[in-house]
Amino acid sequence: MSRDIDVLVLGGAGVDTIVHVPELPLPYADSHMIRPGIETRAGQTGDFVALGLHELGLRTHHLDMLGDDPEGDLVRALHRDRGIPLTAVPQPAGTKRAVNLVGPDGRRLSLYDDTRSRDADRFPERTVRELAAASRHAHVSITHPCAHALPALREAGVTLSTDLHNWDGENPYHEPFAYAADIVFVSTTALADPERTMRRVRERGRAEVVVATAGAEGAYLLAGDDLIHVPAVPPPAPVVDSNGAGDAFAAGFLFGRLAGEPLRRCALYGAVAGAHACTVPSTRAEAVSRAELVSRTAELETAAPA
């Protein structure tokens, strides 16, 4: 069967309202005067992964549930304007949305509106199977409809990746994703023992590689018995916001992986893409280009000590 889609991205579509605050945590006060102000834009984890992959030249398709509301219109417009195919399943509860408080150093606190999702949310199985059959790879967000789509994706024979974000290594909700994926991304932020968690994912699941991102400390790869550290790379401009850095890392890594590159280069692609994302204001949805990613990675590999 023809595989016309390089990566099928499932879930993670939504809208963020960006609020720049003078510091985090924000001190209690009756009010705060803020600049540059408050702005709402489309772009959550699945949107950013899809955008990143698309900008790197991969044929990308995004599947998620969207409401018939202004937030849904923003998500549809983002995909339409960037030329990213989108299959939108009606969501009666409304399009996912969040408020991001962003500090001067680029750190953020995200507040998610939990009324916009339901335990009963599902993607039509036929839609999942048809899209999976046309895809080389599927990247799965950790949402309820994605969890129920995992068996159909596995039966379709498509390879899977997922991002567990700030999993603590204990919450059972994340385990179906962690143990079903061939490539697992996770942040070290909430992990008491990142290496132990990474090894447990490998032992209990089917992951060929587990990637733990650690911000300014870089990332860690576990593909066999050895844990490999990949240093962070200098950003090409001042850091303004960390929002979307992990999604950019995943897109860069998958770009290399699907091209058959060695794991270290895949991780370096991810690090370069993530560093670029940190220089993009949170009010914009922008990803590193393929030319810039490849050029910057080549420069770093040439400059690295033998």
Would you kindly provide a written description of the structure presented here, covering whatever features stand out?
The chain is an alpha/beta fold and 306 residues long. The protein contains nine helices and 13 strands. The strands form two sheets. The chain has a nine-stranded mixed beta sheet with strand order 5-4-1-8-9-10-11-12-13, sandwiched between helices. Strands 3-2-6-7 form a four-stranded mixed beta sheet. Strand 6 and strand 7 form a beta hairpin. Helix 8 crosses helix 9. The longest helix has 15 residues. It is globular and about 55 Å long. The N and C termini lie far apart (43 Å).
**Helical residues, percent:** 25-40%
Question: What's the helix-strand series?
Answer: EEEHEHEEEHEHEHEHEEEHHH
The pLDDT mean sits at 93
> Total helix count?
9
The termini sit apart by: 43 Å
Oligomeric state of shown chains: single chain
User: What is the strand tally?
Assistant: 13
Q: Which value, in Å, is the CA radius of gyration? A: 19 Å
Name the structural class: alpha/beta
Shape: globular
Sheet-strand content, in percent, reads: 15-25%
The main sheet orders its strands as: 5-4-1-8-9-10-11-12-13
Low-confidence stretches: none
The major pleated sheet works out as: 9 strands, mixed
